[in-house]
Amino acid sequence: MSGAPGPYPIVMTRRAAGAGMIVACMVFAGSGASSAGTRPGWSIQPTPNAAATSLLNGVSCSSADACTAVGTSQTNSGASSPLAERWDGRSWTRQAMPPRRRADAGLTGVSCPAATGCFAVGAAGDGPRTLIERWTRHKWRIQASGSGRAGFLTAIACSSPAACTAVGSTSSGRALAEHWNGTRWAIQHVPSPRASWLTGVSCPSPTDCSAVGNATPGGGEPFAEHWSKGSWKPQRIPEPSGFFFLNAVSCSSPDACTAIGYHETTSTFPVTTVADRWNGHTWTPQTTSNLPGINSELNGVSCPSSSDCTATGYHETAPGQRVLAEHWNGKHWASQPAPNPKDRAPQLTAVSCPSPDDCTATGSYFKPDRDGGQFLTLAEQHQT
């Protein structure tokens, strides 16, 4: 059986962690199911798979006709390499990645501030070490990371081609942030708890960013950071009892951010979705739409406006696992019907909405075969 690529324990979904597999909060663009056309609602998009296992860990759309998804492909021998795919409004195609000396590498997050340019982050080699790559028009190139040391990057947000922030964790287990000023990457000081990592970041302007993460070796203690006037400052997030994880954040403006994740009670079941809202002064819990079942988790979120957010994840019931999509209309969260591929364990782990009328979500599903099975990519588009 082909498992998820390692060795990059970025932001594991609860399902992946429970199964003992490393699956980073990721965007997997999928194949194996036909598209439902241009009807309103969610429809599956066919996407290529690069190897025995192909996972897309992040997605970013500068417009409805320009999306890039990145991740990792793994051969049957276990060798992992970065993967990137591009949506041109008609189909997904693989992009060539730059050659590298280190055998194993993977990308976990991507941001495309323009239709002709994207930045992607992840990890490479033993340790591992932080990895940053940039795509300009037709070619990906590796960039020098500001850290230049062991660690990993999980997410990135670019408000312009000359202003990007990437977040993750150092090898010593401290939250890590790096900033791109159009010329070079430089480390930023983050006043975070020990044994912590940042899982998501959003920058609505070149001078304002919000990031979320989790602390302690086992997780369960979320925290938020806000960057303005050249420095990061911690923010308090209300914590329910039990384990509370934040996986992603999206800000339509400095005064309107939404962070999503999941809450696990001390009795283990059920696992329920959570969302918190930033109004410029405080973080406030929101009531999400939890379907009946065993577990529900949100892993990706995108807010094109202050009254419009889409979050994606998975929903687990006794018969099996299904994809999960929820929408915020400015007043409440509501579940959206979304199609599932015919094979097992589908989930949507990232989403990008260039406008309220168009969203692209990516994830994965498991296809059994005579050797056990493999993970394949999954992409869905929502249009109104």
Describe the structure concisely:
The chain is an all-beta fold and 384 residues long.
Largest sheet descriptor: 4 strands, antiparallel
Number of helices: 1
N-end to C-end Cα span: 39 Å
Radius of gyration: 18 Å
Could you say which overall geometry the principal axes of the C-alpha atoms support? globular
Q: Which architecture does the CATH hierarchy give at level 2?
A: 6 Propeller
Report mean pLDDT, rounded to a whole number.
Answer: 85
CATH superfamily: Fucose-specific lectin
Poorly predicted runs: 1-38
The CATH topology name reads Neuraminidase
Top CATH class: Mainly Beta
Question: What does this protein look like?
Answer:
- The protein is mainly beta.
- The chain has a single domain (14-88, 95-383), classed as Fucose-specific lectin (Neuraminidase, 6 Propeller), CATH 2.120.10.
- The chain is built from one helix and 28 strands.
- A four-stranded antiparallel beta sheet has the order 1-28-27-26, with no helix packed on it.
- A hairpin with a 2-residue loop joins strand 22 and strand 23.
- It is globular and about 50 Å long.
- It starts with 13 loop residues before the first helix and ends with a strand.
- The model is unreliable at 1-38 (pLDDT under 50).
Strand-helix topology:
Blueprint: H1 14-18, E1 41-45, E2 53-63, E3 66-74, E4 80-87, E5 92-94, E6 105-114, E7 117-124, E8 129-136, E9 139-143, E10 151-160, E11 163-170, E12 175-180, E13 185-188, E14 196-205, E15 208-215, E16 221-228, E17 231-235, E18 243-253, E19 256-264, E20 271-278, E21 283-286, E22 295-305, E23 308-316, E24 321-328, E25 333-336, E26 344-355, E27 358-367, E28 374-383
Antiparallel strand pairs: 1-28, 2-3, 3-4, 4-5, 6-7, 7-8, 8-9, 10-11, 11-12, 12-13, 14-15, 15-16, 16-17, 18-19, 19-20, 20-21, 22-23, 23-24, 24-25, 26-27, 27-28
